[in-house]
Write a structure and sequence with these properties.
alpha/beta; five-stranded parallel sheet; five-stranded mixed sheet; elongated; binds 3'-deoxy-guanosine-5'-triphosphate; binds magnesium ion; diguanylate cyclase; phosphoprotein
Length: about 325
């Protein structure tokens, strides 16, 4: 049915009817060097109840990035300080703003301009002069797309985490760590980027389970994971390989630095105490470590090398490393 304008005067009613979305949580930014145009846009934004900020100077807007995270940027093309094309390019450099919708307003429908807009990653355009309803329609539709894209990102992130993470410790799981190992192997073959593979295993872990129970065993695994994260670098890839065995990939570390990292790790674990009733539970680990070199062809070969070293460490009395 045709909606009679006289019946629906309140813009919010239109928004609700048309979109079923609440714009009050949306954040919209408009950048235009013309005060009159900004005033017009403000009148529309005010009625949507969204949060908004207006900028006459595009540079002042750029300074708020990427923290300000607008849902929509309404940008004028021609501005003295910095044109809408340049502003769009800057927004698109921030990966945290990849879903921010960019609506360009222009007074000419030039194909060369439209082509440029597509190339630089603008999402939409609106021809000046436009009406309140035109701008409103653009805002509502772009907010819808923004929300859908945010939702998809969230789902993807959750799926990725599920597929790559060990639920008990939050470390990477075996599958992901093997994938990463193969990436490092390719990088080594192509660019000779060095890396080391380290396998570590808790000594006599069965005793901890037998003495204190499986749940306390789990706590020890969680605490060991924390120590690994704290001791190794952010660029190191730490995974739970299975049971009480962990695999760490250490890229870009000269082999002479490996003993330093390893002794730091062994020390931090020796110092650790888990308080349980009257007891203080301690544990040790054994480590096998290998640098990747030309003599290895596959992931299995380098893992076997680290495993052989681990075996030596165990046989030599545990609580130590072989490399
Ligand atoms: P070693 O020094 O030779 O490594 O002795 P160990 O006792 O650590 O080795 P073993 O392989 O005999 O036992 C490993 C134990 O780890 C047995 C198993 O029940 C326990 N384990 C494996 N996964 C988990 C887990 O997720 N939680 C707990 N609590 N225990 C686990
Ligand atoms: Mg202008
Ligand atoms: Mg063990
Ligand atoms: Mg084991």
């Amino acid at each position: 049915d045709k909606i009679d304008e006289s019946i629906i005067e309140d813009i919010n009613e239109i928004i609700e009817l048309y979109s079923n979305i609440d714009l009050s949580n949306s954040f919209i930014v408009a950048i235009d060097d013309s005060k009159t145009q900004l005033y017009f846009i403000e009148n529309v934004l005010k009625q949507t109840k969204s949060k908004y900020i207006l900028f006459e100077n595009p540079r002042e807007f750029i300074e708020t990035l990427p923290h300000s995270k607008p849902d929509i940027c309404i940008l004028d093309v021609y501005m003295d300080e910095l044109d809408g094309i340049e502003v769009t390019k800057i927004i698109r450099k921030y990966k945290e703003l990849k879903n921010t919708r960019i609506i360009i307003q222009t007074s000419a429908r030039e194909n060369s301009l439209l082509r440029t807009l597509m190339i630089i990653g603008a999402d939409d355009y609106i021809i000046k002069p436009y009406s309140t309803e035109e701008l409103l329609l653009k805002i509502i539709n772009n907010i819808k797309v923004k929300k859908i894209n945010d939702e998809l990102d969230k789902i993807n992130k959750e799926l990725f985490e599920k597929a790559t993470t060990d639920p008990l410790t939050g470390l990477y799981n075996r599958r992901f760590i093997i994938e990463q190992l193969n990436i490092l192997i390719s990088n080594y073959k192509r660019y000779l980027v060095p890396f080391a593979v380290m396998i570590l295993d808790i000594d006599h872990f069965k005793r901890i389970n037998d003495t204190y129970g499986h749940d306390i065993g789990d706590e020890i695994l969680i605490n060991l994971s924390k120590i690994l994260k704290e001791t190794l670098r952010k660029t190191d890839i730490i995974g739970r390989f299975g049971g009480e065995e962990f695999l760490c990939l250490i890229p870009n570390t000269p082999s002479e630095n490996l003993p330093i990292i390893i002794s730091k790790l062994l020390n931090n674990i020796r110092k650790f105490k888990y308080k349980y009733e009257e007891d203080e539970i301690t544990f040790t680990i054994s480590i096998g470590c290998c640098n990747f070199t030309k003599k290895y062809k596959t992931d299995n070969e380098i893992i076997k090398c680290a495993d052989d070293m681990l075996y030596k460490a165990k046989n030599n009395g545990r609580n130590q490393a072989f490399l």
